[in-house]
Structures are given as C-alpha cells and as structure tokens.
Amino acid sequence: MQDINIFTLDNGIRVVHKQVTNTKILHCGIILDIGSRDETPEQYGIAHFWEHMAFKGTKRRKAYHIINSLDSVGGELNAYTTKEKVCFYASVLDSFDDKAVELLTDITFNANFPQKQLDKERQVILEEMAMYEDTPEDSIQDEMDEIVFKGHSMAHNILGTRENVKSFKRQNFTDFINDNINTDRIVVSFVGNLPLKRINRLVNKHLASIPRQNFGKTRKVFDHYSAEHITQNKEIMQAHFSMAKPTFPIGHEKRIPFAMLVNLLGGPAMTSRLNLALRERLGYVYGIDAQYHAYSNTGLLSFMFATEKKNLKRSVNVVNREIKRLKDTKLGKVQLHSLKEQMMGHLAMAAENNVGMMLSIGKSLLDLGKINSIDDVFKQIQIVSAAELQELANDEFDLDAMSTLTYLPKNNGVY
Question: What percentage of the chain reaches a pLDDT higher than 90?
Fold first, then answer.
C-alpha cells in the first residue's frame, strides 16, 4: 500500500503508519495477538478482565490519572478484547502525540492489578455478564459459538465464567500475560497527520525498550465440527433464531467472494435479500443479519433474527428458500455489477473512518502480514464471476451442515 509505512523495532514490535493530511487528530493503538482463545479453562475470561484492569493502575499511575490523562485534553482512550486480539487505543489532538503513546505503552505493558481495583472491577464484569444474559440477541451469538466450536478454545464466551471471574488474583494475570506475550505478534498502528520521522521518534522513545519476548503459543486448528440443533425456552417476548457453521479463515483465497455472498444475503444494506424478504415484504422481523467472521485458522458463517413465535417457522423457511435460490440461480450481469458496486462503496466509506482505518491496518498486518490497498481489494472484487459465486454458495451454504439455536418465549411471550 503506497501511502502506508511499515517498520520493525529491534524487539520485534511492528509499526504501521498512514499519514492523513486533512486532520489534526492522531489515532494510535497497540494491538496484541492475544485473545480469549488463548486461555485455558481455568483462565476463561482473563483476557477481557486484563483489558479492564489495564485502566485501573500501573507502576506509575492510579486509575484516575489514567482516565484523566487524555480526557483532560479532549482525547479518548479505549480498548477491546476479541477471541484473538487485545487492543488499547487512543484518539487525541496530534499536539499530544507523546502523551498518548506514552500512556498506551504504560497501560499495555505496566499494569499492576491493584487488589482494591481488582475487587471492584470483578463486580463490574459480573454485571456485564448479567447484561449480556438479559440481552438475547447477544447471548444467542455467544451460545452459538459454543455449539459450533464445541470442544475447542474458540467456543467459550469472551467474558468467561462467573466462577473464574470471582477467583482471579493478581498472579493469574501476570502468568497469562507472560505465557502469551510475543513481541513479534504486536503491532502499533498510527493514522494522522504526523510524518514518519515523528512516528519513528515516538515509538523508539516509548516502545523500543520493551524486552523482546516470544512466549506465544501455537493456536490449535479447529477440525471436528458436527451440526447440532438446540431449542431453549426463555423469559423473552420474541423467538430468536440463529443458524451457523464454520467456514474460511482470514487468509483464504475465497474470503472476498464469500464475503460478497454473505453481504448479498444479509449484509447491512436494506436491499439484502433476507431483509427484502422478511422485513420489507412480510414484516416478520425488525432486522436480520448474515455475518462472516474470519479468524486466523477458521471462520464462522451465521444468520440471526428475532420474530413473533407464530412467525418463526415461516421465517426460517424464507431464510432457507433464499439460500436455496442463491445456490440454484446464477446472478445476472446487472445483479453481479450491483453487488460489486455495493461492496466497493461500503469499503470506501469504511476507509473514511480514520480510527477504523487505524485498527484495520494494524489487524491486517497481524493477521495477513501485509496491508492491501483499497484498489487491490477492488481488483479482487471486480474479477469475481457469477459462476464462482454460485459454486461457492453450493459449497458453503449447506443447510444440512448448519447448526441451529432457537430461543422460544415462555408462556407465548407473556411474563
């Protein structure tokens, strides 16, 4: 990618930098290739808990000083945990670039897990768990992961278990970090109007002294899937339905055409086939999602929606019918052209979001070892044929291979 600079520090940490000249805001983040799938059963939930605790004290700062450091100058400090990543990132006026990079380095590598804050944050996470359990559209996604990836580290909830969250001590965090930190699998990402020379100075000042570590574990490939069908009764108003199966990892050559197919069926556009069929024509749902999550050595295809219990069976039949239509009928020239234009438009708009760009290029460097330009991705989209999409649909949208999870409302949704 011509306007992106990549270099590596002596300790193995990689740096990616994209200069954007029409902004005064610097977006920067430290992305670690560590996530919930790297936890042992006794550690379930610790990566996410670590993300919380990074804000609660370091060797140099107390919790208030961490949250006030950028907030006091109009900046933002944030973090997230996924199955494969922990990320700490900030957005700030570029005149405070040194402050932002120093703070991110401090919370990432120097968290000291003070006992008082540990006990307090434990309760916060237990409340977060309760919130997810009370939100069926969230909990059904987590439970579907447990069904599809059963018996594998990809299966468990990022939040972990209540028993683990209640039991974690300071040593548990330091052990997990020491066992998983690999400086060769850490990327520091920048997007903003700072020249490369300034970025080089910042990272050498604050990150070059981090000791080289290479304790990262090899991630086990998921290879033992079998479809399951589960129905649960819950105190909810609507029926919730999810259907899913494993699919392509992030580096697979079919990833882009497959993403196009998923977008056509149930992407964010109002004209997705499932939205037109279930919402616009029948009025059965408020929304329906088809999603493709690509991970380092596996992927997940999923469909999710909520509807009145009386409309559940008909809604599932509509989903199955639309999938079958995609498999049986090749896209026409106009349909294929429209799909490609839609995908490219979505990607172009995403590229306008500088914080999203910062996170995206950092993650791409970790997952793929490179960063494709938007023009390169457009070229990959443009060469996809209707025949390729139809063949791919027949290979991957196998209804017999799909697992299903259904939440049914108790007492017909009255409680």
Answer: 95
pLDDT digits (tens, 9 = 90+) for 290-316: 999 999 999 999 999 999 999 999 999
Nearest to 32 by CA among 69, 81, 65, 77: 81
* Pairing of the two strands 76-81 and 86-93: antiparallel
Q: Which amino acid is at 59?
A: K
**Which residue in 105, 182, 183, 184 sits closest to 369, CA to CA?**
184
**Three-state DSSP state, 119:** helix
The whole-number pLDDT of residue 415 equals 44
Domain boundaries along the sequence of the chain: 4-206, 229-413
Distance, in Å, from the CA atom of 246 to the CA atom of 226, rounded to the nearest integer, reads 10
Q: Is 74 left (phi over 0), alpha (psi -120 to 50) or beta?
A: left
Q: DSSP of 31-66, one letter per residue?
A: EES--GGG--GGGTTHHHHHHHHTTSBBSS-BHHHH
Helices 255-266 & 386-396, crossing angle to 10 degrees?
80
Q: Which CATH class is domain 229-413?
A: alpha beta
Q: Which fold has domain 4-206?
A: Cytochrome Bc1 Complex; Chain A, domain 1 (3.30.830)
For the entire predicted model, the pTM comes to: 0.94
What SS3 class is residue 61? coil
